UniProtKB/TrEMBL annotation, chain A:
<feature type="binding site">
    <location>
        <begin position="57"/>
        <end position="61"/>
    </location>
    <ligand>
        <name>a 1,2-diacyl-sn-glycero-3-phospho-(1D-myo-inositol-3,4,5-trisphosphate)</name>
    </ligand>
</feature>
<dbReference type="InterPro" id="IPR003164">
    <property type="entry name" value="Clathrin_a-adaptin_app_sub_C"/>
</dbReference>
<dbReference type="InterPro" id="IPR017104">
    <property type="entry name" value="AP2_complex_asu"/>
</dbReference>
<dbReference type="InterPro" id="IPR011989">
    <property type="entry name" value="ARM-like"/>
</dbReference>
<feature type="domain" description="Clathrin adaptor alpha/beta/gamma-adaptin appendage Ig-like subdomain">
    <location>
        <begin position="709"/>
        <end position="825"/>
    </location>
</feature>
<feature type="binding site">
    <location>
        <position position="53"/>
    </location>
    <ligand>
        <name>a 1,2-diacyl-sn-glycero-3-phospho-(1D-myo-inositol-3,4,5-trisphosphate)</name>
    </ligand>
</feature>
<keyword id="KW-1003">Cell membrane</keyword>
<dbReference type="Pfam" id="PF02883">
    <property type="entry name" value="Alpha_adaptinC2"/>
</dbReference>
<dbReference type="InterPro" id="IPR013041">
    <property type="entry name" value="Clathrin_app_Ig-like_sf"/>
</dbReference>
UniProtKB/TrEMBL annotation, chain B:
<dbReference type="GO" id="GO:0005905">
    <property type="term" value="C:clathrin-coated pit"/>
</dbReference>
<comment type="similarity">
    <text>Belongs to the adaptor complexes small subunit family.</text>
</comment>
<keyword id="KW-0813">Transport</keyword>
<keyword id="KW-0168">Coated pit</keyword>
<dbReference type="GO" id="GO:0006886">
    <property type="term" value="P:intracellular protein transport"/>
</dbReference>
<feature type="domain" description="AP complex mu/sigma subunit">
    <location>
        <begin position="1"/>
        <end position="140"/>
    </location>
</feature>
<comment type="subunit">
    <text>Adaptor protein complex 1 (AP-1) is a heterotetramer composed of two large adaptins (gamma-type subunit AP1G1 and beta-type subunit AP1B1), a medium adaptin (mu-type subunit AP1M1 or AP1M2) and a small adaptin (sigma-type subunit AP1S1 or AP1S2 or AP1S3).</text>
</comment>
<dbReference type="GO" id="GO:0030121">
    <property type="term" value="C:AP-1 adaptor complex"/>
</dbReference>
<keyword id="KW-0968">Cytoplasmic vesicle</keyword>
Length: 944, 156
């Protein structure tokens, strides 16, 4: 037992702890604990009233037992009793017990709140602090309800002790985070902001955390804090290291407060007031200058504190992104850190440079460090540092260095840690596509990717290479030759077989002239892989074979032989069997002409943005939509078609499901045949350009769907807003019916004239099958300045659908006609009815929906917080039932629901598997209707 | 803000756990398992930072004890290291050459000291003197339970 036992020792407790430590086995420990629990229980139940000391000792023992990891189901009452003791030491243990063992028992909470109330009004600062701590530690809704109105008063009252103010500020912050609706600052706002001027550094340090959080939520109300923060920061930065006494940390004046001030300023744009801004720039320059000064101490604490401020200042400079001089200085400073002997600094410099790379002012400066970063990727011992280096290479990549960076990333991939491979693959694929100058390089890169890390290549990546090869006739021959060579390897990845099968099936003829790759050689090569492949790949290969029969009549006999054998034509898998039967029949009865038409080369895919690229774009910033971004989205109208990311493989399967192939349905299938003559843009132009030139598809030039995806999991909110108009929606759904209230607000002071709105179903014109009935009444043609008008839209869902209805709004503002088209957030999931089911039911149904086309799956990167509660809220917002205890892995989420349309009901099962380490998700949907699986998968992949 | 602070030994024995947001017991156990296995597996001379879910994990070893602090994404890593260091200093000042056993046998004190320093996942008081003064003041109260609160003033 240690000699030190300050204050009052609780001898019994020390003996008990010592006993536990002497236990030789887990069993002995449990035995000792049970003995103690029995003892404590009998003491608590005994007739004799316990004195405060004993009660405290036993409560403390219970706490110790709990912290060892054992359940405690009694003693709460005794702990609550201790709260009302007037002996500090007993009260303190009572509060500690309550803080650690929060119990939602409402009876108890009422008693606890009562004790807290007494302590808060005791005017004893020590007791008040204990009570505030307890509120902050528990932070429950009930406590917020009881105290949220009291604490601001304590915080700003003139006679409150400093230490109590500190606790009150942080306690309030805690309550604000859990129950923002209950914490109303209102009249206190300005007094809270002025705490930034408080004499006591400790008070400022505590208060600034509260102010920062409040400013993030209500920037306008708190904007006076900017000038106060700048002057406080300026005073600290210019003070000598001794001025601040104990708030100087290893010769650095007030590092915590400095960082908090710099963080607070990051909630706001650069100060508008010239003087304030000048003062701030001066501070930032001083901080950068100090980094160059010799250290005042050799201790790591000194340099850590100093550099913490420096990094925070750099974050602010990056946040402002408006001072080229400071940005370049920041970049140079980080460049020095890249070679620092401290691993921590190298890590942080790499991380911080990533954000600098995206600023136009410092992008070039960041690029000068490429060799150092590549070197870090190769030589750093620590995987987390290597990961940062890879991130930075990705961020600094542009057309000028893409080949070098992609090559380095590929070679790193060979030895990369498993934990980061998937992400690396995605990054290489994105860069290769984005900066491809010649397509053979792109094809080489992706095939290398599959060769090196095939397991980590997601569907999007290999779908994409096929789409590009099909659309670019200048690369088809090269691609065929390259996949043929790649397939020679004795062990090649299944993804390689898929790409190979697809490409040779389409373009094998381009290399068939060479006897080394004659048709039969090609076929035998593909077929040698067949038996090692999974069902979907085999299905794809079968389609490639029938394409071969068309391309090379000399292979017909061999291939028919293969199709005819029992393992194909009687395959237990219904999909494979069906393909074998149909293809065999087709090849035997169809004339050469029919065969040639049916099995014609794939038409080009409609040019549209790559799904991988879309992910990248979203990562850039889901913030406010600037005018330029809106312009961009107008030009990229192509992606609005909402066709989704159906890959060639699933498409092929869907096509083969049609029992009698018609000449127009290509067997290797593509979702919507591109219009004849829709030739790809001029050869040689960059891929990226091709995407942005895709023509608009919606009738009105500008369909705005920015707001659309935000409403998949929620029903109310602001759908659209610009300088003139705000559109809010509220909607409710029941069965297959829905009602949406649209609120049009005129934000100007001028009347809108001839205001008309039209709602249309996008499928209406092309086909006669309506997916939904939309019914609405016309609105008043005049909307006064500042006024809001309402419109009700009734919706009846007739059948499942992918395309959302469009809302067109026309009105005159001033003389100018305004025309706006929005996608209304009516998505198929709105018609969900949640279905509760047991684990066994779930799995039974899951198995029943096992046809490949019934399943849609996507692996994608997390774009939002992976927090459990957030995810749950979203999944519930989706409309399905969130099922607990179904998936054997508790990290995963499974949901079930039935989509109600007028014609039919579609059962849907969903499984979402988060991988927190990689920040990725795998989403799987199985529905009784395949188009629903795909649509839900597309919609949901954008939500997490 | 900070989300949690864990102290564990080289053998992975948990010595102190402080959670700044409400988390279920089951989740806590899982986090403790993840943290100990992740941190103990780190090679010497690696950097002190890790990404874990949407949090940053900052850890540092002092003698036989690992201090492991989880902070939210926008927080400053270097300063988090110094939060750990300041806590070690406070413990050291209180116990005098603090060792793992002090924290085992006086766990409640370790919590009280932490509470004076941090609150709700934010820094409450960075001054070592101020924190020590309030700890000493409450110790004085402990020694004389009959004293009433006016005496706090004398030491505060």
């Amino acid at each position: 037992m240690p000699a030190v036992s300050k204050g009052d020792g609780m001898r019994g407790l020390a003996v008990f702890i010592s006993d536990i430590r002497n236990c030789k086995s887990k069993e002995a420990e449990i035995k000792r604990i049970n003995k103690e629990l029995a003892n404590i229980r009998s003491k608590f139940k005994g007739d004799k009233a316990l004195d405060g000391y004993s009660k405290k000792k036993y409560v403390c023992k219970l706490l110790f037992i709990f912290l060892l990891g054992h359940d405690i189901d009694f003693g709460h009452m005794e702990a609550v009793n201790l709260l009302s003791s007037n002996k500090y030491t007993e009260k303190q243990i009572g509060y500690l017990f309550i803080s650690v063992l929060v119990n939602s028992n409402s009876e108890l909470i009422r008693l606890i709140n009562n004790a807290i109330k007494n302590d808060l009004s005791s005017r004893n600062p020590t007791f008040m602090c204990l009570a505030l701590h307890c509120i902050a530690n528990v932070g429950s809704r009930e406590m917020a309800e009881a105290f949220a109105s009291e604490i601001p008063r304590i915080l700003v009252a003139g006679d409150t002790m400093d230490s109590v103010k500190q606790s009150a500020a942080l306690c309030l912050l805690r309550l604000y985070k859990t129950s923002p609706d209950l914490v109303l600052m209102g009249e206190w706002t300005s007094r809270v902001v002025h705490l930034l001027n408080d004499q006591h550094m400790g008070v400022v340090t505590a208060a600034i955390s509260l102010i920062t959080c409040l400013s993030q939520k209500n920037p306008d109300e708190f904007k006076t804090c900017v000038s106060l923060a700048v002057s406080r920061l300026s005073r600290i930065v210019s003070s000598a290291s001794t001025d601040l006494q104990d708030y100087t940390y290893y010769f650095v004046p007030a590092p915590w407060l400095s960082c908090k001030l710099l963080r607070l300023l990051q909630c706001y744009p650069p100060p508008e007031d010239g003087a304030v801004k000048g003062r701030l720039v001066e501070c930032l320059e001083t901080i950068l200058n100090k980094a160059q000064e010799p250290p005042k101490s050799k201790k790591v604490q000194h340099s850590n504190a100093k550099n913490a401020i420096l990094f925070e200042a750099i974050s602010l400079i990056i946040h402002y992104d408006s001072e080229p001089n400071l940005l370049v200085r920041a970049c140079n400073q980080l460049g020095q850190f890249l070679q620092h002997r401290e691993t921590n600094l190298r890590y942080l410099a790499l991380e911080s440079m990533c954000t600098l790379a995206s600023s136009e002012f410092s992008h070039e400066a960041v690029k000068t460090h490429i060799e150092t970063v590549i070197n870090a990727l190769k030589t750093e011992r620590d995987v987390s540092v290597r990961q940062r280096a890879a991130d930075l290479l990705y961020a600094m990549c542009d057309r000028s260095n893409a080949k070098q960076i992609v090559a380095e990333m590929l070679s790193y991939l060979e030895t990369a840690d498993y934990s980061i491979r998937e992400e690396m693959v995605l990054k290489v694929a994105i860069l290769a596509e984005k900066y491809a100058v010649d397509y053979s390089w792109y094809v080489d890169t992706i095939l290398n990717l599959i060769r090196i890390a095939g397991d980590y290549v997601s569907e999007e990546v290999w779908y994409r290479v096929i789409q590009i090869v099909i659309n670019r006739d200048d690369v088809q021959g090269y691609a065929a030759k390259t996949v043929f060579e790649a397939l020679q390897a004795p062990a090649c990845h299944e993804n390689m077989v898929k790409v190979g099968g697809y490409i040779l099936g389409e373009f094998g003829n381009l290399i068939a002239g060479d006897p080394r790759s004659s048709p039969l050689v090609q076929f035998n090569l593909l077929h040698s892989k067949f038996h090692l492949c999974s069902v979907p790949t085999r299905a794809l290969l079968l389609s490639a074979y029938i394409k071969f029969i068309n391309l090379f009549p000399e292979t017909k006999a061999t291939i028919q032989e293969v199709l005819r054998c029992d393992s194909q034509i009687r395959n237990s898998d219904v999909e494979l069997q069906q393909r074998a039967v149909e293809y065999l029949k087709l090849s035997s009865i169809a004339s050469t002409d029919v065969l040639a038409t049916v099995l014609e080369e794939m038409p080009p895919f409609p040019e549209r943005e790559s799904s991988i690229l879309a992910k990248l774009k979203k990562k850039k910033g889901p913030g406010a939509v600037s005018v330029t971004e809106l312009e961009d989205s107008k030009r990229e109208g192509g992606e609005l078609n909402g066709g989704g990311d159906r890959g060639p493989d699933t498409a092929a399967m869907a096509a083969s499901n049609a029992s009698t192939p018609s000449p127009s349905a290509d067997l290797l299938g593509i979702r919507s045949a591109a219009p004849v003559g829709a030739a790809p843009a001029s050869a040689g132009s960059l891929l990226v350009d091709v995407f942005s030139e895709a023509g608009p598809i919606a009738p009105s030039a500008a369909v705005n769907d920015d707001g659309f995806l935000r409403f998949v999991c929620k029903n109310n909110g602001v759908l659209f807003e610009n300088q003139l108009l705000q559109i809010g929606i509220k909607s409710e759904y029941r069965q297959n019916l829905g009602r949406m209230y649209l609120f049009y607000g005129n934000k100007t002071s001028v009347q809108f004239a001839s205001f008309t709105t039209t709602v249309s179903c996008p499928g209406e014109l092309q086909s006669h099958i309506l997916s939904m009935h939309l019914c609405t009444k016309p609105v008043e043609p005049l909307v006064e300045g500042g006024a809001q008008i309402q419109q009700v839209l009734n919706i009846e869902c007739l059948t499942d659908f992918s395309d959302a209805p469009l809302l067109n709004i026309k009105f005159r503002y001033g003389g100018a006609l305004q025309n706006l088209t929005l996608k209304l957030p009516v998505t198929i999931n709105k018609f969900f009815q949640p279905t509760e089911m047991t684990s066994s039911d779930f799995f039974q149904r899951w198995k029943q929906l096992s046809q490949p086309q019934q399943e849609a799956q996507k692996i994608f990167k997390a774009n939002h917080s992976m927090d459990t509660e957030v995810l749950k809220a979203k999944l519930l917002g989706l409309g399905t039932a969130l099922l607990d205890n179904v998936d054997p892995n508790p990290e995963n989420y499974v949901c079930a629901g039935v989509i109600q349309t007028k014609g039919q009901q579609v059962g849907c099962l969903l499984r979402l598997e988060p991988n927190a380490q990689a920040q990725m998700y795998r989403l799987t949907l199985r529905c009784s209707k395949d188009s629903v699986s795909r649509r839900l998968c597309e919609l949901l992949a954008e939500q997490f | 803000m900070m989300r949690f602070l864990l102290l564990f030994s080289r053998q992975g024995k948990l010595r102190l756990q402080k959670w700044f947001t409400p988390i279920s017991e089951r989740e806590k156990k899982k986090i403790i398992r993840d943290m100990t296995s992740m941190v103990l597996a780190r090679q010497p001379r690696s950097c002190n930072f890790l990404h874990w879910k949407d949090l940053k994990i900052i850890y540092k070893r002092y003698a036989s004890l690992y201090f492991c602090l989880a902070i939210e994404n926008q927080e400053n890593e270097l300063l988090a290291l110094e939060v750990i260091h300041r806590y070690v200093e406070l413990l050291d000042k209180y116990f005098g050459n603090v060792c793992e056993l002090d924290i085992i046998f006086n766990f409640e004190k370790a919590y009280f000291i932490l509470d004076e320093f941090l609150m709700g996942g934010e820094i409450q008081e960075t001054s070592k003197q101020m924190v020590n003064r309030s700890i000493e003041a409450s110790d004085m109260l402990q020694e004389d339970d009959n004293s009433d609160w006016y005496e706090v003033e004398l030491f505060g």
